[in-house]
Amino acid sequence: MSESLRTAALRAEIERCRQLVDPLLLEPSRQAAVAPEHLRRAVVAYLERPAKRLRPALLMLSCRALGGDERQALPAAAAVELFHTWTLVHDDVIDNDAVRRGQPTVHTAAAAWARRDFAAAPAAAAAYGRDVAILAGDVQQAWSNAMLLSCARQGVPAPLVLALCERLQTVLNYRLLEGEMLDVQFSLQPLESITEEDVLRMLHLKTGVLLEFAATTGGAIACGRLPDEDAAVAALGRFAGLCGLAFQLQDDILGIVGDEKA
Amino acid sequence: MIILHALRQASSAQRAVLGAALGRPDADAGTVAAAQACLVDLGSIAYAHDLATGYVRQAIGILRETVPSGPARDLLETWAESTVARAT
Questions:
Q1: Which of A123, A188, A231, B57 qualifies as a FRET site for A154, CA 20 to 30 Å off?
Q2: What is the mean pLDDT of the segment spanning A36-56?
């Protein structure tokens, strides 16, 4: 198959996965449980914007690659996207970014709501925006956990689901936050004191570990074993982690010589 | 990564060009363009690209060794290649 046909097939597959996952991400009953309205709107803000859903697609493809039923993996695919989303919301607060996916970041939008609905002064509105964004990320993290747990209702054995939840809350969470923390610390250090290995480790923790989690979770659901119990599941994790590094390096290149960041 | 590589290779004149743009959101377009050209001249963009391409090759090798061949594995390989082929 030619490169263009393979690329077209991949695009079609990612779009197919997006269409399967989006209804779970935007389920009205889950949204209705979040109040008050500003918090609900903050929680769904990024989910409602156009996005490729690469992480869910990676999870579902990994599941199929090891002979699994992707319908069983669907809630896990939604869970990794929700997990990714809360990290974006909090990352935007930390970096004080104003725009995400072509629209205001959550904290920027919520600051505008504070000015409009409470006639808040600029400083108070900015503080409100940050507060809302932090809380929205917290809700999304809880959603992510709940979504992953719901795999048990799709026929995934409960002990495996619990083990995956534990990995999400320990291995993934700790390592991803370690990466975020290193990024924060690097911003205070002279560039000469930072090595290439330091940067690669930070990039892997910030980007690669979530991709690793997505791929190994898909593989684990397919074969009923965790990465430390199955060589193929572990290999999917190493594959995804390396791709995460490549993805991040390409992002950095495009940030300098490209038209626009993805 | 790109900046670290550049600073390791740069002459003092090139360091000055990079320093005028680094971490300065108020830098004008000309200053930014000069720094971008400097990063290309120093081979730092190519270095990062080669590193990324190497990771993709390694990733695909791992996949082929362990995961059974089939349509899903083919799509995963294409996904890996797309991480460095994308323009946005």
A1: A231
A2: 96
Nearest chain B CA: its distance from A117 CA (Å)? 32
- What are the tens digits of pLDDT across the range B23-54? 787 888 899 899 999 999 999 999 999 999 99
Give the residue numbers spanning the domain of B23: 2-42
d(CA A175, CA B21): 32
A-facing residues of B in 18-37 (CB < 8 A) are 36
CATH number at residue A28: 1.10.600.10
Q: Is A100 helix (H, G, I), strand (E, B) or coil?
A: strand
Q: Do B86 and A10 touch (CB under 8 A)?
A: no
Q: Is residue B33 located within the same domain as residue B56?
A: no
Q: Is the dihedral of CA A36, A42, A43, A48 positive or negative?
A: positive
ipTM of predicted complex: 0.92
Query: Within a domain: residue A57?
Result: yes
- Identify the weakest region by mean pLDDT among A17-21, A232-236, A250-254: A250-254
**Residue range A79-101: average pLDDT?**
96
Are B37 and B56 contained in the same domain? no
CB contact under 8 A, A10 and B80: no
Q: How many folded domains does chain B comprise?
A: 2
Sign of CA dihedral B46, B50, B51, B56: positive
Contact B20, B33 (CB under 8 A): no
Average pLDDT rounded to a whole number, residues A134-157: 97
Could you tell me how far CA A86 lies from the centroid of its own chain?
7
Q: Smallest CA–CA separation between B66 and chain A, in Å?
A: 5
Q: Residue A36 pLDDT more than 60?
A: yes
**Test the B interface: residue of A17, A193, A253, A261 with most B CBs within 10 Å:** A253
pTM (2 d.p.): 0.94
Work out the minimum CA distance from B42 to partner chain A, whole angstroms: 14
Q: Report how far residue A107's alpha carbon sits from residue A96's, in angstroms, rounded to the nearest whole number.
A: 9
Chain B residues touching A13 at Cβ < 8 A: 75
Q: Domain limits at A247?
A: 13-257
